[in-house]
Automatic annotation (TrEMBL):
Segments for region (Disordered): 1-25
Official protein name in the record: Uncharacterized protein
Organism (species): Setomelanomma holmii
Compositionally biased region (Basic residues): 1-10
Amino acid sequence: MTPPPKKKSSRPSTPPTRSPRSSANALWVHEQQKRIYLDHLLRWSLDHDTSLQYHGKISLSPEQSRRKEDLDLGKSVTCVLTDTSFSDARQTIIIRLFPPQRPTAKPDNGRAEDERRDSMDLLDSEMKQLVVQQDIESHSKQPQIIEGSKGHYKLVVRCGAGWMCAREYFSKVYFSHLEATSSKPNGRLILDESLAKRSRALGPPPSDTDSVTIRPLFHAFRKLPPELQEMILKTSASLSRTYNLCSDEYGTLKIKKDQIRPAIPLSTLFCVSKSLNATFRPYVLHSTDFQFGLTGFTNFLWRSGPCNRREIRRLSFHFGKLALLHCIRWLAPDRIFGLFEPPVATNPSALQYFWRCQIQDLVMELNLLSLTINVSQIPKEDLPMVVAILKNAFGSAERIHFVQTAADGSIERTDSNSEVLKGLGKECSWREMCMAYYQAHRRHSYFFRFELLKGESEKLLEDEMDGDKGFFDTVFKPFCGMEQQKMLC
């Protein structure tokens, strides 16, 4: 009796899977490991802390390619480093490549759990799917960054008894070659022959399919276009169109200052390089509006130097209620200063006259494109004399603007029809303005010299002004460009 035929299973038969433990498939498994490792290495090369000088490539060592183990992230891997700036400059190095950190999940017990897995473990289910889906040539194409990862790949190189980050090691190789080539006239030729001889001892060069290019991800700063260099430096110094140098608040306005602190001070910015300053320094001085209170202006001009002073184009003054006293002390013509001589506490007392001569000589070198005066807190009757003194003090000022301080400390342009500016277009003389100054401030001793505090001081002033009628009786408009000011406002 013949046995009944066996029933065929309705389930489809599954093809035999490649087992990484099978000796017949060991070569295939190793190729997958090598391909994945090169893919990680390529990802590192496209987003790493790069050396700004080194150009070359890193390849898996032929001996490492024949080995069947240790080709894994976080483990020591033997590679060949090639400096492409020479004909044949290879050296054997040992590296360790670490993957980016992935976000950690907090389980219910509140303790952080590291979700990282060994991405080179072929027995892992995720890795099996990756091996099946990846193409053999995928490492030659630009890969996508792992979703959910943060940070970057980290590569370290064996150096002596320790490890050195890739950037430092590659820079070390570059500068050692640079020193050898610059020590002798034919140093580069000698070094090229020496490196080629040493490289031949390593055997044939590695295959391009086992290599990853190393190059700077960004151009060196000095090789960037000057416009881009200036933009980077302006951003690092938080430069805008204004630079607030108001350091005092006594008698002046509390101006709203930027809360952003620059990464580097302006003085350090000008020390980057001499060649860069040739274009960057004039640009900053031309485009920046430097703002001052009662102090700091003389020191700024003195430390700028004669060459830079000629490049300054925009100034703003926030003098406040003491504006006219400040202008008479330091910027007024000598005839007006000699008329009042407001005292200044200096030691020695003659130092006041030295400072006055110094600032008057410095401001005469300035040819301004824009002079801005903050009229807030300046008495309306003082403003014409303030404007007349400032116009006379500077070498030239193409445009004069008037601004006011808002309640929040911000600066706003003053309307040309404002009551404050109406007196600027009227004709007057230095005699009229000096007498108005005396009448408005005669009760304050620090506005005049001691002789004017006694009786009959008005007659004394009139007699002194009569001695130079050509200057004090000349009629003029303190601000003759009111029509131009209306257009600008």
